[in-house]
Design goal:
It is a single chain. The radius of gyration is 23 Å and the shape is elongated. Helix 1 packs antiparallel against helix 2 (about 25-45). Helix content is about 35%, strand content about 25%. With about 325 residues, it is of the alpha/beta class. It has 10 helices and 13 strands. It has helices at about 20-25, 25-45, 65-80, 110-120, 135-140, 200-210, 230-240, 260-270, 280-285, 305-315, and strands at about 10-15, 50-55, 60-65, 95-100, 105, 110, 130, 150-155, 165-170, 215-220, 245-250, 290-295, 320-325. Helix 10 (about 305-315) links the parallel strand 12 and strand 13 (about 320-325). The strands form 3 sheets. It has a 7-stranded mixed sheet, sandwiched between helices. Strands 10-13-12-11 form a 4-stranded parallel sheet, with helices on both faces. It has a two-stranded antiparallel sheet with strand order 5-6. The longest helix is centred in the first third of the chain and has 21 residues, at about 25-45.
């Protein structure tokens, strides 16, 4: 029986560049992925772990012992470094390991720790293994001689309130040099650092993110204190990858004059108006060739000005999406 108070270690993996492999050589990739799954299962089982599920081109596994998770990740990287093992395709996987206490339901895990583990993996590059500070604390004095840890400092993980101190697992047969970690800072944005964790609203988060992918204008409406701003910011952090030109928050609560709404948006985007022309002209010119998400927060007292601005921006710029909140 699962002990609800037990610390569980989570290992997430993902194949870097798998979409390109599927596009270029789908038949060989089908064979390679089958071998990847077999090797992953063998490495996890050999180190007393359990695969919870496959996640597209990766796995989600759990371990009672965090050192088992680290050793399984190393074994997996070493096995997949041999292209012959996967039918001639070199698979570069990224791995993330984190530990914590989460809820278990229907043979799956739900909670902050498992979410953070997935985000730690998301910061890595192909061939790289990242572990959280929690894992470092649990395994540092038990590491075998051929495994060491390289401190990479703190990273802002996408969608999470608190940054994470991460280390890279170092092994003599694995690459040591990688580009800078993938983080919230990689995509242009002005999203504030959240001071609280986002919990118990996963259904709303998933629904809003789904709707945002289907429409270019979405409004969250509710009374004061309903949590519209927090939900908007969380969704914005989750979908950063979809907007190469950034995610931009415009806080409208301090704007008392509706005529100043375009100026507030321009300030958030860093757009400067041309002398002798309305700032709206500069905004539309800036947006025309870009793809970004604009988060208009607290529109209620300037709602007509926001509606007019949204209409003009969406008509002029096909790559712009707007997420608004209003009472």
């Amino acid at each position: 029986m699962h002990d609800p108070s037990a610390v569980t270690t989570y290992l997430f993996t993902d194949i870097e560049g798998s979409t390109g492999h599927w596009e270029r050589e789908p038949e060989r990739m089908r064979t390679a992925l089958a071998r990847h799954d077999e090797i992953s299962r063998a490495c996890v089982t050999a180190h007393r772990g359990t695969i919870v599920k496959t996640t597209g081109d990766g796995i989600h596994a759990v371990f009672a012992d965090p050192l088992g998770a680290v050793r399984a990740a190393v074994a997996l990287q070493l096995a997949l470094a041999d292209a012959d093992a996967t039918g001639g395709i070199t698979l570069r996987i990224r791995c993330g390991v984190h530990a914590g206490v989460d809820a278990r339901r229907d043979n799956d895990y739900y909670g902050n720790a498992v979410n953070r583990a997935a985000r730690v993996m998301g910061a890595a590059h192909g061939g790289q293994i990242l572990v959280s500070q929690v894992v470092v604390t649990l395994v540092a004095d038990r590491l075998p001689k051929d495994i060491s840890l390289l401190d990479l400092g703190q990273v802002r993980l996408r969608g999470l309130a608190q940054p994470e101190q991460v280390c890279q697992v170092v092994h003599p047969s694995l690459p040591r040099q990688f580009p800078a970690l993938r983080s919230l800072a990689d995509t242009p944005n002005n999203l504030p650092q959240q001071l609280t964790s986002f919990v118990a609203r996963e259904r709303e988060l998933a629904e809003v993110a789904k709707l945002l992918g289907e429409t270019r204008l979405l409004t969250l409406q509710g009374g004061g204190g309903f949590g519209k701003t927090r939900l908007s910011l969380q969704v914005a952090a989750e979908v950063l990858d979809d907007y190469p030109d950034g995610v931009w928050l415009v806080e409208l609560a301090p704007v008392g004059d509706p005529r100043l709404v375009p100026q507030a948006v321009a300030s958030a985007l860093g757009v400067k108006e041309d002398p002798g022309f309305p700032v709206l002209d500069a905004l539309l010119k800036f947006a025309t060739e870009r793809r970004f998400l604009l988060v208009l927060d607290n529109c209620e007292h300037v709602v007509h000005a926001c509606a007019d601005l949204a209409r003009q921006m969406l008509e002029a710029a096909p790559g712009v999406t707007i997420l608004a909140s209003s009472r």
